[in-house]
UniProtKB/TrEMBL annotation:
Species per Swiss-Prot/TrEMBL record: Wenxinia marina DSM 24838
Cofactor(s) named in the record: Zn(2+)
Pathway: Cofactor biosynthesis; riboflavin biosynthesis; 5-amino-6-(D-ribitylamino)uracil from GTP: step 1/4
Keyword Lyase: yes
Catalytic activity: GTP + 4 H2O = 2,5-diamino-6-hydroxy-4-(5-phosphoribosylamino)-pyrimidine + formate + 2 phosphate + 3 H(+)
A biological process term (GO) from this entry: riboflavin biosynthetic process
Cofactor note: Binds 1 zinc ion per subunit.
Name assigned to this protein: GTP cyclohydrolase-2
Ligand binding (Zn(2+)): C222, C233, C235
Family of this protein: Belongs to the GTP cyclohydrolase II family.
Enzyme kind, highest EC tier: hydrolase
List of residues binding GTP: R217, L218, H219, S220, A221, Q238, E260, G261, R262, T282, T317, K322
Entry's Gene Ontology molecular function annotations: GTP binding; GTP cyclohydrolase II activity; lyase activity; zinc ion binding
Length: 362
């Protein structure tokens, strides 16, 4: 019956639930768990979770390493919640903001052995909801009764893992002419993914031939740089220089991908900036938060290019990994076109770190 929400629809709903502080029910092979995001869980709900069982706090291996907690796994650590732990304690483990002020959170007792798959799925779900990657889990026998009783979203974990690994279908919702400074012959196309995720945009300059490699830029959203003119990065100048070059050549395509903060979301990027003010570099800040250096997925960008009929590109970037990742998605990068603009005294260290640690070309 089409009125029953499908699994992708329930997954999309689960992301909103977690952002609002509602737990979701994850069902695995050997049992189920109630899972709530550490960032948004309130005191009353924590008390209700405790009434159902003994909670653990699942964090990433990266965050566990910072906290010197034993992960016993390459991916996640399951921190046992002490009886006295309140939401403030949970947030202090999840969020590195006060690590330096209050260095010792532990010693933290962590779970070893048993099935960690629900903890992994839960943390991946938190990341995809652009929350801190830390989830409180309480084991349940199967979760069916609780779900029927409460209306909480219930999801089979294996199917969630598979879905989150897939590239969602992405369809053009609308396109219209949009004269811009760089070119009067520009069109903006809005693409909408089928999984309820962020919309992404394509700016097409001129009418690029589909038979020749097109001058292309995959630009990741940077609200601070693109809109506010932040001096901490080079995104704003790169965005404008890319469009200007396309305008000068008379054609090109710029994808504006809503993968703010290299895929961690604006709130987490601001957490990273706050850590950078404490002396950590851009990569260390991501790791302390529990993220990888770069959490972006360029497969959706590749789908958008293909959808518009572009199979070969001259890619404007200083990031060789981006060339590799796009090529791996079946888009032929015939040339890497450097895009070196916007160095300031505020972003010099950031650019040098990207060159040293992430392989960007200076
Ligand atoms: N997490 C995090 N994201 C950042 C930071 N500074 C900028 N960003 C984001 O980084 C993305 C831009 O990626 P960059 O690594 O600068 O560049 P790139 O896309 O890999 O490479 P280029 O094609 O050469 O620009 C945007 O989404 C920005 O919001 C930071 O300190 N931390
Ligand atoms: Zn930026």
């Amino acid at each position: 019956m089409s009125l029953v929400p499908s699994l992708p629809e329930r997954l999309s709903r689960a992301r909103s639930d977690l952002r609002m502080g509602l737990p979701v029910i994850l069902v695995g092979e050997g049992g189920a768990a109630l899972a709530a995001a550490a960032e948004t869980l309130g005191a009353e709900r924590l008390a209700d979770l405790r009434a159902l069982g003994a909670p653990v706090l699942a964090i990433t291996r990266r965050r566990a390493d910072t906290l010197r907690a034993r992960a016993y796994s390459a991916h996640v650590a399951r921190v046992v919640l002490p009886d006295a732990a309140d939401v403030g304690w949970i947030r202090a483990v999840a969020d590195p903001a006060d690590d330096l002020k209050v260095p010792l959170k532990g010693p933290l007792e962590t779970g070893r052995g048993g099935d960690e798959s629900l903890a992994r799925t839960a943390v991946a779900l938190a990341k995809s909801a652009r929350l801190l990657p830390a989830m409180v889990l309480v084991p349940l026998a199967d979760g069916t009764v609780l779900s029927e009783h409460t209306g909480l979203t219930r999801l089979p974990a294996a199917a969630v893992d598979a879905l989150m690994g897939d590239v969602p279908d992405v369809a053009e919702a609308i396109a219209a002419r949009l004269p811009v400074e760089a070119s009067e012959r520009a069109r903006l196309r809005v693409f909408r993914p089928g999984d309820g995720g962020e919309e992404h945009y394509a700016v097409e300059i001129g009418r690029p031939s589909r038979d020749r490699p097109v001058l292309a830029r995959l630009h990741s959203a940077c609200f601070t740089g693109d809109v506010l003119g932040s001096l901490k990065c080079d995104c704003g100048p790169q965005l404008r220089a890319a469009l200007a070059q396309m305008g000068a050549e008379g054609e090109g395509v710029l994808l504006y991908l809503n993968q703010e903060g290299r895929g961690i979301g604006l709130a987490n990027k601001m957490r990273a900036y706050s850590l950078q003010d404490q002396g950590f570099d851009t990569v260390e800040a991501n790791h302390r938060l529990g993220f990888e250096d770069d959490e972006r997925d360029f497969r959706i960008g590749a789908e958008m290019l293909r959808g518009m009929g572009f199979a070969r590109v001259r890619l404007l970037t200083n990031n060789p990994a981006k060339v590799e990742r796009l090529s791996a998605c079946g888009i032929e990068v015939v040339e890497r076109v450097p895009l070196k603009v916007g160095e300031t005294r505020f972003n010099h260290h950031y650019l040098a770190t990207k060159a040293k640690k992430s392989g960007h070309l200076l």
